[in-house]
């Protein structure tokens, strides 16, 4: 097969987190396609190494191989959650669906933080935006961010975000799968700590009194909790700090949505993973000891006070917030936040995007045709 071969209109090439594995929006779109049209699509995942969690209907190809170039050159669809590969020219009959890896984030991104990005990345992102054919959003805020900060002038479809399915609709199978993977007993609940990375790769800001926090939520909610942590993928390869020794390490659990579906209480800082977790309606807390320094680095689309979570700058404040958690106040805060960003998502975004792909797989169909 040569790189000049014709486009295969049933072929979808997926890439998640620059080949990290089978996860994120591309995973949930692929599963919806298989569910709606069993074995009708050739689903190809570009990976750095084999992901054994991927189902058998997913063909895995090494991201940096010549075979990956062939797959990209002949696929009707590219589906990526970061930016598209740089090493294959996109043809006019190919469709690139950019599924950015945040459905909503307090941190400013892309052109809105251009001065903090490497010039090479900015050039790459501009070129990638020009190649993009379709984006989607489930809230007003990020619909506008995609239009203004991504060097993109195409359509932003309002629909659910595919990866939100297990968080909005629930996923008991995922809960059991995570508990088995982490070795959590059936009678214990999970508290997950998932801070974002810092520009200087430091981890000192992650430290608080984990044991005291676990005691506080155990007393407040009347359950026994285990403490697990998930380091950001950007620092996942670093040696774990000693103060995390003895706690469950969930960093290498690839599918963050499954992990969140199994989590009962969550702590984070400025990471959008906490906004993801908010979709479950379960208690979330912010621990932000370095807020002033961090806000100077990136800036925010909305304030910490706009988020629906209580904010602590110290370990003692975090423990006090856990002890004083009020479920009714939290529900009201969630409603206010979702109203603030204009959020609408019914948990079926995976099937909505899959239906677009099904329509576009018909020879000659364009994005303009299916969007009317």
Question: Summarize this, please?
Answer:
By secondary structure, this protein is α/β, with parallel strands linked by helices.
Describe the structure.
Strand 1, helix 1 and strand 2 (42-47) form a beta-alpha-beta unit. The chain has helices at residues 24-36, 66-74, 119-131, 140-149, 165-169, 172-182, 210-221, 256-261, 273-278, 291-297, 315-323, 327-341, 349-360, 367-371; strands at residues 8-15, 42-47, 58-62, 75-80, 95-98, 135-137, 156-158, 189-193, 225-229, 248-249, 265-268, 284-287, 310-312. Helix 1 packs across helix 13 and helix 7 (210-221) packs parallel to helix 11 (315-323). The protein is α/β, with parallel strands linked by helices and 372 residues long. It is globular. It has two domains: 8-161 and 346-371, Rossmann fold, CATH 3.40.50.11820; 171-341, Rossmann fold. Strands 10-9-8-11-12-13 form a six-stranded parallel β-sheet.
């Amino acid at each position: 097969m040569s790189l000049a071969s014709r486009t295969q209109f049933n072929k979808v090439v997926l890439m998640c987190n620059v080949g990290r594995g089978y996860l994120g929006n591309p995973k949930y779109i692929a599963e919806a396609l298989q569910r709606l049209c069993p074995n009708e699509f050739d689903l190809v995942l570009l990976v750095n190494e084999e992901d054994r969690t991927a189902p058998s209907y997913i063909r895995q190809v090494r991201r940096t191989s010549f075979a990956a170039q062939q797959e990209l050159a002949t696929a009707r669809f590219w589906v990526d959650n970061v930016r598209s590969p740089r090493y294959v020219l996109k043809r006019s009959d190919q469709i690139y669906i950019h599924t950015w890896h945040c459905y909503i984030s307090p941190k400013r991104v892309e052109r809105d933080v251009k001065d903090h990005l490497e010039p090479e990345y900015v050039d790459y992102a501009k070129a990638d935006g020009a190649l993009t054919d379709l984006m989607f959003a489930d809230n007003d805020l990020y619909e506008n961010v995609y239009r203004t900060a991504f060097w993109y002038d195409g359509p932003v479809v309002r629909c659910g975000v595919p990866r939100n399915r297990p968080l909005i609709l629930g996923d008991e199978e995922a809960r059991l799968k995570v508990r088995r993977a982490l070795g959590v007993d059936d009678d214990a609940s999970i508290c997950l700590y998932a801070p974002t990375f810092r520009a200087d790769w430091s981890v000192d800001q992650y430290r608080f009194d984990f044991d005291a926090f676990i005691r506080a939520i155990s007393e407040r909610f009347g359950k026994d909790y285990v403490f697990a942590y998930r380091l950001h993928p950007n620092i996942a390869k670093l040696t774990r700090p000693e103060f995390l020794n003895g706690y469950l390490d969930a960093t290498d659990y690839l599918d963050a949505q499954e992990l969140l579906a199994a989590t009962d209480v969550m702590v984070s800082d400025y990471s959008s993973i906490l906004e993801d977790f908010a979709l479950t309606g379960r208690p979330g807390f912010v621990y932000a000891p370095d807020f002033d320094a961090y806000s100077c680095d990136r800036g925010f689309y909305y304030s910490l006070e706009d988020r629906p979570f209580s904010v602590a700058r110290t370990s003692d404040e975090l423990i006090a917030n856990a002890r004083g958690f009020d479920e009714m106040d939290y529900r009201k805060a969630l409603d206010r936040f979702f109203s603030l960003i204009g959020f609408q998502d019914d948990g079926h975004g995976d099937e909505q995007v899959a239906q677009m792909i099904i329509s576009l797989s018909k020879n000659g169909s364009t994005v303009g045709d299916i969007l009317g």
